[in-house]
Amino acid sequence: MIISSINYKGGVGKTTVAQNLAVALVLEGYKVCLIDADDTKATTSWADKRDENGVEPSIPCVSLTNPKSFAKQVRAQYEAYDVLIIDCPPALSPLAVKAMYASHLLVIPVSTTGGSDVWVSEQLLEKFQEIREAKEDAGDDPVQAQLLINMYRSNVTLHELAAGIVEQLATTYDVGVFKVKLGNRVVYGEANVSGMGVLEYGSDRKAKVEIGRLMKELVGLATGSQ
User: CB 3.0–4.6 Å: which of 103, 109, 174, 212 could bond 4 by disulfide?
Assistant: First the structure.
């Protein structure tokens, strides 16, 4: 399965989600490769830190930022792995569009902390609709999309309102919403700077449960058991 962690807005957690999903799937025994399609190379740096610190298992990471060769190189990488996870650039760019076309599933993190995060996600969903229809017309492999509520606090009214809007967007654009919500937790950042995922770092049980549930939901989508 080829998965893109994508949103047109930066700071919503797409890179953190990509890294933690990679760790969770590797720990379940899947052969996983990360594709870093963001010019900031944040995921490449994370993978390098992981290797420097001797964190096992090692997770390969390939930087692909040339739109002209992107699709071909993604297909070549996919031959050697069960799962590719693409950390996409935070913009409506040719590379982001290529990643959506190449993917079987888009994971779209949406921050509930306010600002324009939810409405920028609507722009992405409009583009997703175009791509989904184009792939159907061409007889290509279908692409699904799932919204992921991120940086969430259940006792904050603003976050509850934002989560409700996410549910509305899912209905409007005929996409899914992950049942699990990822909390606004310091441990995600702490694990990141160590080249780890929260399943490997520290003792924040709630974060570990969240990522475990996210991984299981994702596998369920991939296998059709959900």
Answer: 103
Q: Give domain status of residue 41, yes or no.
A: yes
Residue 117 falls within a domain, yes or no?
yes
CATH number, domain of 90, equals 3.40.50.300
If pLDDT is split at 50, 70 and 90, which confidence band does 46 have? very high
Asked if the model's pLDDT at residue 49 lies above 80, the reply is yes
Q: Which two tokens stand for residue 56?
A: 């096992």
Give the residue numbers spanning the domain of 99: 2-220
pLDDT level of residue 8 (50, 70, 90 thresholds): confident
Task: Answer whether residue 226 is part of any domain.
Answer: no
List, in sequence order, every residue forming a beta bridge with 129; answer none if it has no partner.
Answer: none
200 touches 191 (CB < 8 A): yes
Residue 44 CA to its chain's centroid (Å): 15
Mean pLDDT of 49-56: 94
Structural domain count of the chain: 1
Residue 225 lies in a domain: no
Helices (H) and strands (E) in the chain, counts: 8, 7
The pLDDT value given to residue 214: 97
To which residue do tokens 């992950």 refer? 178
